[in-house]
Design brief:
about 625 residues, alpha+beta, nine-stranded mixed sheet, 32 strands, about 20% strand, binds guanosine-5'-triphosphate, binds sulfopyruvate, binds manganese (II) ion
Amino acid sequence: MTATSVRLPHLPHVAPGQPLDLHAWVAAVADLVEPDEIVWCDGSADERRGLVDRMVATGTLLPLDPVLRPGSYLARSDPDDVARVESRTFICSSSAEDAGPTNNWREPAVMRAELAGVLTGAMRGRTMYVVPFSMGPVGSPLAQVGVQITDSPYVVVSMGVMTRVGTAVLDRIEAGARFVPAVHSVGAPLVSSDGTRVADVPWPCHPTKYIAHFPETREIWSFGSGYGGNALLGKKCFALRIASVMGRDEGWLAEHMLLVRVTSPEGRRYHVAAAFPSACGKTNFAMLQPTLPGWTVETIGDDIAWLRPGEDGRLYAINPEAGFFGVAPGTGVETNPTAVEMLSHDVIFTNVALTDDGDVWWEGLTPEPPAHLTDWTGRSWTPASGRPAAHPNARFTVAAAQCPSIADSWEDPAGVPVDAIVFGGRRATNVPLVTRALDWEHGVFLGATVASEQTAAAEGVVGELRRDPFAMLPFCGYTMADHWAHWLRVGAGLSGAGRPLVFGVNWFRKSASGEFLWPGFGENARVLAWIVGQVDAARSASGSGSGSDEGAVAGPVGLHPAPGALDLDGLTLPDGALEELFAVDPAAWSAECDLTEEFFAQFGDRLPPELTAQLTSLRARLTAS
Ligand code: GTP
Ligand code: SPV
Ligand code: MN
């Protein structure tokens, strides 16, 4: 028999700049993936109940004890589908230079052909859900809408928590709003190509995964994974990778940042946005309970912020999400009592351990583990097992409205005015506890030079130091060099008095014997108090024309708290810890500058000259110190 050529179906996609017809797109995707049925989702409580019941029946969700953990469920993923897969995340812009050296670029036509291949018949035997959602309060001028097609009921229910799903979004699309089309399949059809039925499993997925983005046509295509950032396409794929491109083109910023409202003992209010890499403390900081008397921190967002210049020259931010997909391990009464309370009911847990009485447990929830557990893989576990009971990247999915520290302004459609922007990483050495940038350009340099020790939130060797500019390395939909240029442009357009101050922080510096030098968590309020004090100092200075750095002293890497300016009342640090927390070793920093130069070099002539100038100035200050 002669070989017949296989007809590759055309992957339905959007023409650049052309409005996409929702119904035509859904029909075209259905033609490709061949589902048994199509269900349009309305985000209602009834719909959620039906999906949850079905997942309980199929074993995807395990109901937890209704008294100990009401309304809550445990999902156990496939053991090979536990985190974002950065090596399989692709930016498919027409030119490789637009994706930049730190993204995996694929030629759009090549990727479309590959995706069409794997997606052909991918939903056979399954239901195809159509999920209209809004990132940001529906109708907010800072919000954007999308539609996710998926064959995973776990994804539908999770999107219902993490975004605003409903017919109000469809109405906006019918009225002409442009939407981001996002297709997701777990890649496990229940009918094989020869027509035989395949048994379903609790967590279907495929060993080969694709998380593909077409920034020019604002499309997302995801295949093979059911997990978090790979599958809940409103989150990293839309709200960061696609939105960062929208922001570049339209003059706003989509960032991997938490957002909080801070109130001082005098009742003054500030808004702070902070970018830390994955699993480096955003959720903890967003729910911080200050140890400093009289201070309040309220939560607006814990992972993503969209920031847009307002007409008054200030930067306004929203949290585009409606829920938290947070790291469970390390979340305990000592570290994050707010989260522990938030998780008392109506939560979907993924890859935590199960107690014998039908509740959940993870490392760090209590100081001592229970005597017996079922671990995240479903195996019997005791403290002697010698392996973690919960996966290090085990997560909770919970509505933001359920957070005890949620700010009443968290859904303000106008957003909140940002006073300070903070960048931080997990650095055992070199980087001081807190540094104020000398000006906006220096602040962009602080963001561009964030580095952090690898965590379990993505595949890779935990603990290895990697560069993670703006905590956006895996999340920027275009080249990081242009992202920095965009930040410089946005800052230049803000009014002097309204422009946020920029800071760098590091909660993770260690002593020679490997102990954390700073207690962190609620004690981070001390650093926050200094930060907003600097905002006050800068504001009153811009009125009076006097020095703007009261409470600060200049060092080679930036401004640090002047002696006594960091409120340490009631805190006992080990001898010498404070000095070590702020120590700047010129030799180690000179080596750091060499690494930065090497890192910057890969961006060639797209690197903004302002950043080269910042590196030169830093070297000069180090030499003079
Ligand atoms: P993603 O959701 O992955 O984007 O991460 P996130 O930045 O929200 O991470 P999260 O707040 O969940 O960070 C969790 C890890 O950071 C845990 O290991 C915490 O114990 C640790 N952590 C958070 N804050 C502090 C701190 O102030 N000091 C120390 N030493 N560890 C901290
Ligand atoms: C992160 O990895 O930064 C997360 C979790 O917030 S995920 O949704 O999987 O991206
Ligand atoms: Mn994140």
